[in-house]
Automatic annotation (TrEMBL):
<keyword id="KW-0472">Membrane</keyword>
<feature type="transmembrane region" description="Helical">
    <location>
        <begin position="306"/>
        <end position="324"/>
    </location>
</feature>
<protein>
    <recommendedName>
        <fullName>Peptidase</fullName>
    </recommendedName>
</protein>
<keyword id="KW-1133">Transmembrane helix</keyword>
<keyword id="KW-0812">Transmembrane</keyword>
């Protein structure tokens, strides 16, 4: 057991050393145009969940049924014909991805509208009901989809517009799986034009998808200055086990520091924070990365350091293997 523990610790240390890489996040927007759609209600147990006010976020047992009211509005000066239908979606590449056209999935087969088409008067609005009925034979797990409202073309134009409400539906017997995430890295950098920027690497450590939002506050700066709060500019959506970066652009005239940086992130009712002392690098210099785990030290990430980190990982594993052989020989 001691040998296995030594090797596990060695591997974890190596992974931390090369764990600085991330991808630029993207935030999905469920459509735009002359019509709008919004959720009108949410279950009582989720009244305090900001995500449940704009998306359908729920956990159901096999065989259960839920209904939700949605309001469809028009900004057109003409009567607007609207089609209603469910569409497939997924969470990947750090965003919520709605499928094109009317592509369906398992979840869309469970959805029914009380009416699939309607006509809105000029600048009018109406309420529709969507019902989701989960089969008794449904397997456990989270499904994703969108409830779409699509405006039919008016006049000679062939352009269509659609807007939608996301669905995050978890299915399984018993209680709801936990939602959780960790802030693993805090990154201070400057763009080529010299504008400061703050980033954070987030790991979805729970069992449900998360949508990141939040703010950054800077205090105890030069001369006791404070700045912010600065909102997260690029929120990200992460599936269970996923990692990604949130991006926070800052004021161009912000000084180098040092600053006391406090980052607040949330996905629904799940909130986490991290703080550290940072100094922004000069334009053209390597970003400064702070790990929020047990190492908790600042390092500059450069191409050379990246190569050293990868080499260090190999060295650590080789050291662990050598230790394993020595212990085995001594027995």
């Amino acid at each position: 057991m001691r040998i296995i523990r030594y090797l596990a610790i060695s591997a974890m240390a190596g992974l931390v050393m090369i764990g600085f890489l991330g991808l630029t996040p993207t935030w999905a927007d469920e459509g735009s145009g002359p019509i709008g759609i919004r959720l009108m209600d949410a279950p009582a147990v989720r009244r305090g969940d900001p995500r449940a006010r704009i998306h359908i976020v729920d956990h159901l047992s096999p065989g259960a049924t839920i209904s939700r009211l949605l309001q469809v509005t028009s900004t057109s000066r003409r009567p607007q014909r609207v089609q209603l239908y469910p569409g497939a979606a997924s969470v990947g590449r750090h965003r919520f991805i709605s499928a094109p056209d009317r592509l369906g999935n398992e979840l869309t087969e469970w959805v029914r509208f009380d009416r699939t088409s309607l006509t809105l008067p000029p600048r009018g609005r109406t309420t529709v009901k969507a019902t989701i009925k989960v089969p008794r034979t449904a397997w456990r797990g989270e499904r994703y989809g969108v409830l779409w409202a699509e405006a039919e073309p008016i006049g000679d134009t062939e352009e269509t517009h659609r807007v939608g409400v996301r669905i995050y539906l978890d299915v399984g017997a018993g209680g709801e799986p936990p939602t959780d995430f960790r802030i693993e890295q805090l990154i201070a950098l400057r763009s080529p034009t010299g504008r400061p920027e703050f980033r954070a690497v987030v790991h979805n450590s729970g069992q449900r998808a998360v949508d990141m939002s939040g703010t950054l506050r800077l205090t105890d700066g030069p001369g006791g200055a404070s700045a912010g709060p600065f909102p997260v500019n690029h929120g990200i959506s992460l599936p269970p086990g996923g990692r990604g970066r949130v991006v926070i652009p800052l004021a161009s005239g912000l000084g180098d520091g040092p600053w006391q940086a406090t980052l607040y992130l949330a996905s629904g009712r799940t909130q986490r924070s991290a703080d550290t002392t940072i100094t922004f690098p000069k334009a053209g210099e390597a970003p400064v990365v702070k790990l929020t785990g047990i190492l908790g030290t600042a390092v500059a990430v450069t191409p050379r350091n990246g190569a050293l980190a990868a080499g260090g990982f190999v060295i650590v594993l080789m050291s662990g293997f050598a230790l394993f052989r020595r212990l085995r020989t001594s027995r």
